[in-house]
Amino acid sequence: MEWFDSFWQVYSNLVLTVGINALLALSIWLTLSCGLLAMANAAFMGIGAYTAALLTMSLGAPFAVALAGGIAAPTVVALVIGGPTLRLSGVYLAMATLGFGEVVRVLILNAESLTGGALGLNGIPQLTQWWHVLLALVGTLLILWRMRRSRIGRAFEAIKEDAVAASLMGIGVMAHKMLAFALGAAIAGLAGALNAHLTFFIGPSEFGFDRGVDILTMAILGGTGGLTGPVLGALIITLLPELLRGFRDFRTMMNGAILVLIVLFLPKGLWDPQRVRQWLGPGRR
Amino acid sequence: MLGQQLVNALSLGCVYALFALGFTLVFGVLGVINLSHGAVFMIGAYAALQLVAHLSFPLWAALIAAFLVSGAVGLAIDVAVLRPLRQRNAPHLIPMIATIGIAIFFNSASQGVFGAENLRFPGDLLPDQQLHFANVQVSVLEVAIIGLSFALMAGLLVVMRKTRLGRALRAIAESPKAAALLGINVEGLFYLTSATAAALGGISGVLIALYSNAVFPLMGQPMLHKGIAVIILGGMGDIRGALIGGLFLGFAEVMSVAYIGSTMRDAVAFGLLFVVLLLRPQGMFGRVLERKA
Predict the structure, then answer these.
(1) Chain A CB contacts of B33 below 8 Å
(2) Which residues contact B121 (CB under 8 A, 6 or more apart)?
(3) In this complex, which of B90, B92, B271 lies closest to A91 when CB atoms are compared?
(4) b vs e for A87-124, b when ≥16 Cβ sit within 10 Å of the residue's Cβ?
(5) Are B65 and B48 in contact, with CB atoms under 8 Å apart?
(6) Which of residues 161 through 190 in chain A touch B, CB cutoff 8 A?
(7) Separation between Cα atoms, residue B198 and residue B70, nearest integer Å
(8) Chain B contact for A99, CB < 8 A?
(9) Cβ contacts (< 8 Å) between B257 and chain A: which residues?
(10) Which of B108, B111, B277 faces A100 most closely, judged by CB atoms?
(11) Pairing of strands B130-133, B136-139
(12) A contacts of B242 (beta carbons < 8 Å)
C-alpha cells in the first residue's frame, strides 16, 4: 500500500475535487432532465460555500450543521427566484439564470463586512474528509437513481419532452420544475460547502460565469442520457489540465480544442450506451 | 458635472451596444448563444494593436483591418464548427458549448503568443485636444466612438428593415426551413451573419481598447458578461434592444460610479438587471414565445 500512500499524498485534493465536480455536474443534470436549462448552479454553489464557511468560522458551528446550512440556503434562494424565472424556457432561462449568477457574485463581492469582498474568506478549517465527499456523491447518485425510476422522474421526462402535453396528462409542471430547480440548488450547495472546507479559501470570482459554464460543460460533455455521463464528464474536465501538463503554456488551448472536437464528433457526449454497445457488439464495422 | 457624465455614459454605452449587436444578431438569426464573441472582440483589439504598433498603420486603416480580421475569424468559426452542428440539427445547447471551447482556445492562444501582460496603443495615436460644448469636455476619441457606433448601428438597422437582404434575414430568424423553401440562400446568410457579427465585435474591441487603453488576452470575458446583461435588458435577438440595453447599462454604470462609488458599479448594473429579470424576464422588448395547447 506504499504506492497508494504516496499517490494519495500528492493527488488526494485532485481526487476529492473530481468528486465535488461530479456533484456539481449532477446538480445541473437534474434540471436538464426536467428540460430546464438553468445555469445558476455556480451561484448556488457559492451561496452554499459562503453559508457553510461562515457558519464554521464565525459561529463555530459543527461541520454537520455547516453542511446543512450550505444545503438549505441555496435551496431557499432557489425557491424564491424560481417563481418568476422558471416561467421562461430554453435559452431565455439560461440567460436569466446566468444574470442571476452575476448578481450573486457581485453581491458577495460587495458585502465586504460579511464575505471579505474581493479578498474572499481565508483560513476555512479543512474539515472535509475523503469519505464525506464519497458519501455525498454516492448518496446523491442513489437518490437521483431512485428518482429517475419513480413517478417524479417520469414526470420530469414528460415535461422535458413536451411541457404542454405533460400538463394535459395532469402533471403539475410548475411544481415539478420547482422541485428540480430547488433540488439542483441543494446539491450544488452541498458541493460548495464541501469544497469550501477542502480548499481553505473561497473568493467571489470562483463562483462566477466561468464556473457556471464549466459545470454545464461537464454534464454535456459526459452525456446527459443517464447518471454516468455527468460523473464521467466531471472526471475528464477535472483531469484534463493535469494530463495536458506537457503542453505547458498552450495546455488551456488544447483544453479548448478538445472540447470543440468532442462536441463535433461525439454528439451525445462521451457516455453513450448505444455507441458503446455498437463498439462491443459483433457487428462492428 | 451631469453633462460630463452623460457624455461618458453615452460613449461607454455605445461600445456596449456595438458589442451586444453582434451577439444579439447571431442569436436572432442562428439561434446560437455565441460565447466566443468575447474572444473575437479581443482578436480585433490585438489585430489593430499589432498593425498600429509594428507596421505603423494609421488608426482608420487599423480599424478596417480589425473589422476584416475579426470577420474572417467569425466566418472560420461558422464554417468549421457551427455549420457541422447545424447540419446535424444539434440542440441549441451544443453550439453554445462548442463556442465555449473556441473562446478558451483563442483566449489562451493569445496569451501564449502575446503574453498575459497589458499592452497599450502608442500615446500619440489620437489628438488629445478636447472639444468644448457649453461646459462639457469631449475628447476626439469619444466623438469618434459615438459617431462610429451610431453609424454602424444605423446602417445595420436600415439593412435589416429596408432591404431584401434584411427581409431574408428576418425570414430566417422566423424559420430557416421556410426561408429555404422560399429560395433564400440560408447557408450563405448564416455565414454572412456570423462574419458581420464578429466584425462588429472586433470594432468594438478596438474602441474599448482605445477607451480604456488596455489590451490583454482575457479582455473579452468581462465584456461577454456585459453583453449578456445587455441582451437580457434589451430582449434577446432584438437590434433596437441591444442599442437601448447597451446605452442603459452604460448610463447605469457611469452614474453609479459618479454618485454612489466605483465599487458599486457592477452591483448597480447587475442589480438593475435582476430587477428587470424579476419583473420582465423577457427583457424590455422581448417576447416570450409560449405555445398554447
Answers:
(1) 91, 94-95
(2) B49, B52, B53, B209, B210, B213, B215
(3) B92
(4) bbbebbbbbbbbbbbbbbbbbbbbeeeebbeeebbeeb
(5) yes
(6) 164-165, 167-168
(7) 5
(8) yes
(9) none
(10) B277
(11) antiparallel
(12) none
Distance CA B279, CA A43 (A): 20
Considering only CB atoms, A85 lies closest to which of B84, B224, B281, namely: B281
User: How far off is chain B from A99, nearest CA to CA, in Å?
Assistant: 7
Instruction: Say whether A109 and B98 touch across the interface (CB within 8 A).
Output: no
**How many other CB atoms are found less than 10 A from the CB of residue A67?**
25
Q: Where in chain B are the domains?
A: 13-230
Do the Cβ atoms of B263 and A110 come within 8 Å? yes
Report the gap between the CA of B11 and the closest CA in chain A (Å): 24
**B150 exposure class (CB count in 10 Å sphere: 0-12, 13-18, 19+):** middle
Q: What is the number of alpha carbons within 13 Å of residue A123 lying toward its C-beta?
A: 3
Angle between helices A173-199 and A130-148 (to 10 degrees): 170
For residue B215, the cross-strand partners are B119
Instruction: Please state, as a whole number, how many other Cβ atoms lie within 10 Å of the Cβ of residue B9.
Output: 21
* Interface test with chain B among A31, A106, A255, by most B beta carbons within 10 Å: A106
Q: Is the dihedral of CA B3, B5, B9, B12 positive or negative?
A: positive
pLDDT tens, per residue, chain A with 285 residues: 778 788 777 788 888 899 999 999 999 999 988 888 888 999 999 999 999 999 998 888 888 899 999 999 999 999 998 888 888 777 778 877 887 888 888 888 888 788 877 788 887 888 888 888 899 999 999 999 999 889 999 999 899 888 888 888 888 899 999 999 999 999 999 999 999 998 888 888 888 877 888 888 888 888 878 888 899 989 988 888 788 777 766 777 877 888 888 888 877 777 777 776 777 665 544
Are the beta carbons of A20 and A70 closer than 8 angstroms? no
- Residue keyed to cell 496603443: B121
Which is nearest to B143 in space by CA: B157, B155, B154, B128?
A: B128
How many alpha carbons lie under 13 Å from residue A214 in its C-beta half-sphere?
22
CB contact under 8 A, B232 and A95: yes
List all residues of chain A from 117 to 136 with a beta carbon under 8 Å from chain B.
none
d(CA A121, CA B158): 52
H helix or E strand, kind and range, residue A263: helix A251-265
Count the residues in chain A: 285
Q: Which three cell numbers stand for residue B176?
A: 430557416
Name the residue of chain B whose CA is nearest to A118's CA.
Answer: B263
Question: Which residues of chain A lie closer than 8 angstroms to B100, CB-CB?
Answer: 213, 217, 256, 259
Instruction: Judge whether A205 is closer than 8 Å to chain B, CB to CB.
Output: no
Cα nearest neighbour of B270 on chain A: A103
By C-alpha distance, which of B6, B28, B49 is closest to B253? Answer: B6
Smallest Cβ–Cβ distance between B293 and the set A95, A168, A210 belongs to: A168
Residues A180 and A156: beta-carbon distance below 8 Å:
yes
